[in-house]
Design brief:
The complex is a heterodimer of chains A (59) and B (137).
Chain A lengths: L5 H20 L3 H30 L1
Helix pairs in contact in A: 1-2
Chain B lengths: L6 H11 L5 H8 L3 H5 L3 H20 L11 H11 L3 H9 L9 H29 L4
Classes of the chains: A mainly alpha (59), B mainly alpha (137).
Chain lengths: 59, 137
């Protein structure tokens, strides 16, 4: 059984979802790459940010 | 006033009139990226295939659950998402994969990976259909 850490799971999820979003939501390769990178940063960034918010709420 | 011609639109119309229009949609649903392969979008198809199959396989490796029956509303949504995986879902069901109940947090992540892989596959198949009909270039 695979046991990735929470961060690793987030990064893997963001990577694969961003690739599909980039390819399907934009028309030119350059814009696909930019949009995919944008989605990846938003996925991972929002997960990290929300994690810190929950950390401070729990204290 | 002279009539104007729109070559890209004509080309798209010509392309959309030849063959079964829904073939990339159906193929893309059954096999991730196959719709793009049919349209000779090799790199896009390969990236979609690798991404969706990897996500599905990682979900199974994390001992994620594959929804089989719809007893509650959330289960129905899970089945709908899983069905988006096409042959991945059907083969996994046939092999009895993902049948164990979720007991760990990681297994719950795996369940979500499997559902989202199916949903992403639907998006990819619809994208192939849009390419086929000329709605997207």
């Amino acid at each position: 059984m695979l046991h990735p850490s929470h961060l690793a799971a987030v990064i893997l999820f963001a990577l694969f979802a961003s690739v599909v979003f980039g390819i399907t939501m934009r028309e030119t390769p350059r814009r696909m790459i930019r949009y995919g990178a944008y989605c990846f940063v938003l996925f991972v960034g929002s997960a990290v940010l929300l994690s810190w918010v929950m950390f401070f709420i729990a204290r | 006033m002279t009539p104007t011609t729109n070559k890209p639109a004509d080309g798209a119309a010509k392309q959309s009139s030849a063959g079964f229009v829904y073939l990339p949609l159906v193929a893309g649903w059954l096999i991730p990226g196959a719709g793009h392969f049919l349209l000779r979008k090799w790199v896009r198809g390969a990236l979609l295939f690798v991404s969706i199959v990897s996500m599905f396989a990682l979900g199974l490796a994390m001992q994620g659950k594959i929804y089989t029956g719809a007893h509650e509303v959330l289960d129905m949504l899970g089945v709908a998402g899983d069905l988006g995986g096409g042959l991945l879902y059907l083969i996994s069901r046939a092999l009895g994969l993902g049948a164990d109940p979720v007991q760990t947090t990681v297994a719950d992540y795996g369940t979500k990976f499997i559902v989202v892989a199916g949903l992403l596959n639907i998006i990819a198949a619809v994208d192939a259909h849009n390419l086929r009909t000329g709605r997207k270039s």
